[in-house]
Amino acid sequence: MYAIGGGLVAKLYRQPNDPYYAGSSSEQQAAKIRLSLIRQKLSAFPSGLPANVIGPKALLTDSQGEIVGYVMSFIKAETLLTYGDLQFRESKNISNNEIRDIFIHLHQTLKAVHQHGVVIGDFNDMNILVKGNEAYWIDTDSWQFEGFLSTMYTEKFVDPLLCGLQNGIWTMTKPHNPFGDWYAFNALLFKTLLFVDPYGGVYKPNDTSKRVKQQLRPKNRITVFHPEVIYPKHAYDYKVLPEKLMQHFEEVFIHDRRGEFPLQLLSSMHWQTCPKCGIQHARMHCPICSVGIIIPIAVSSGNIQVHEVFKTVGVIMSVAFHNGKLCYLYHENGEYKRETSEIICTGELDRELHFALQGSATVFAKATTVQYCKNGTMSKLSVDCVGNVPIFSTTENDLFWVVNGVIQHANPLGLEYTPTKVGEGIADQTLIWSGASFGFGMYKAGHILQGFIFEKGRRVINDSLQLPFIKGEIIDAKCYLSETRAWLLLSTKYQAKYINHCIILNAQGKVLLDITNEQGDTSWLDQIKGKSAVGGFLFCPSNDGVIRLSIDASGNLETKVFSDTASYVNQYSQLIVSPQGIYVVSKQKINLISIK
User: Fold this and answer.
1) In 487-515, which positions are buried (b, 16+ CB within 10 angstroms) versus exposed (e)?
2) What is the Cα 240 distance to its own chain's centre?
3) Does 128 reside within a domain?
4) Mean pLDDT along residues 16-21
5) pTM for this prediction
6) Do residues 45 and 135 both lie within one domain?
7) Shared-domain flag, residues 60 and 115
8) Are the CB atoms for 250 and 225 separated by under 8 Å?
9) How far apart are CA 168 and CA 301, in angstroms?
């Protein structure tokens, strides 16, 4: 994908001789067949589709006149995948009423697309972009029309009625059809409303002979409604759904009901926030409070002590532990405020803002502009943007940023003084994270993922790192830095699967361990956010409690689960490790857990 200006991007297909396919003759042959087919398919792309369907505006050809790609409109927006992320939704204060409106728009478009004889096929949360309450459809070249079959699919959203076992593997065995699109619509709606897939959770039957692999649960229709499935703690209880919608989902995912989604179930749905427990629900009365669930705010039990540090009716935006104390920024009653109650600025919560803290200083960023606020004064600087993310990073004493691909370190005398050039990456492609001892950065150029180590005071980066080859599209990236380690976590989508990676490096950039895990198995690598690195350890939130990771003397990953913390942590909590204990951050609360 290449931005070419004028609100357009160009999509070029990989050629069979692309280094991406090096060493795999089967992939090279598949690329050759796919390229031959796509050249015919693009020329037959249907016209008259809704305006929010982002299809080819013009075809791109090489010097021999062969079609090699196409031009389409550029939409700067978040993926629907992001809207199914609890941390993102809470930080942006996005309600399920907005999700309802987005899916009403999706419903209208899907119905219109079907009326043109088109089937989406690989209908997933990466090929839907959301801007406001409008949904835009991308990757439309994979759609099924005019006799061109779509062979791509995503495991989480493919209709089980189109699948079967081949060589012991659950895979798609029948062509896509409109009913399959509506099945995917149901699965996406379920996930985005409740933050769990219909076949999520952990299946632990009392009868061990009934155990099945996670991948085979759709085959056996073992959904989160099953009494022996452990429901994820972070997810909204399905009882918050309107009763008729919950019954509809049971019919679809358990009893194989198919057909167009009943629009009335969406248009009549109204969500409200319970003033007592804070949960969103679409019932007459809160189904959570009605069963008498009490969430403790302070306790001393077993091997832990828990103390409530802070609570707000607004939203906690950013948290850090700097200079021996907890620092945080929150938005409440139209004001952005620090832990000292100092009002940094006023205004409604802006969903396009990104935040960071540097001791008593507060950093706001929007698009390519960063505002640095300290002692009542405001400074501005320009930065690169990767997707929708402004590229800057802070420690308790330092501010780094990237502009035109150049990594800059703020002058200790102030932003009005000339910064230090640390090194160079690629403009609008380079990500950075800074730590107390060193920083880590990366960019992707073609098929190569290039990582590098940087340090303040040095004008050169160490880019001799040999990172593992990562196939597929990188959806998100996080890096957690301690004095001695960099824990790089990548979320990717490759073919039908969502896969997370953890690459552990030392301060010199040597890869110590490379771990790969498919999402959906509820491990510490099921999601990549909210972790905290200290020394040789990485602390991870999970539904089973805080998990501590380290590398043992044999070079293997060692894990320790602090099960006593399970009542106060879920996999979408944010952890800040300090000498006082582990701060657990949620949307409106910060608790301090001390482990004895």
Assistant:
1) bbbbbbbeebebbbbbbbbebebebeeee
2) 24
3) yes
4) 79
5) 0.92
6) no
7) no
8) yes
9) 47
What type of residue is 314? G
Helices of type H across 10-135: 25-43, 80-83, 86-92, 96-115
Q: Of 479, 504, 528, which residue is a domain's last?
A: 528
Verify that 368 and 483 share a domain, yes or no.
yes
Please check whether residue 393 is in contact with residue 383, taking contact to mean a CB–CB distance below 8 angstroms.
no
Pairing of strands 229-230, 272-273: unpaired
How sure is the predictor about 3, in pLDDT bands with cuts at 50, 70 and 90?
confident
Considering only the C-alpha atoms of the chain, give the largest distance between any 2 of them, rounded to a whole number of Å: 74
Of the residues 53, 74, 95, the one at which a domain ends: 74
- CA separation for the pair 14, 34 (Å, rounded): 10
Residue type, 343: I
Residues 6+ apart with CB under 8 A from 553: none
CA distance 554 to 549: 14
* Helix, strand and coil percent figures for the chain, each rounded to 5: 20, 35, 45
Q: Is residue 185 part of a domain?
A: yes
**Is residue 79 one of the residues assigned to a domain?**
no
Beta strands 315-322; 473-481: pairing state: unpaired
Q: How many residues does the chain have?
A: 596
Tell me which residue of 36, 2, 1, 32 sits closest to 15, measured CA to CA: 32
Residue 86, Cβ neighbours under 10 Å: how many?
21
- What is the rounded distance in angstroms from the CA atom of residue 531 to the CA atom of residue 582? 11
In 3-state terms, what secondary structure has residue 248? helix
Q: What is the DSSP code (8-state) at residue 142?
A: G
356-373: pLDDT as tens digits: 999 999 999 999 999 999
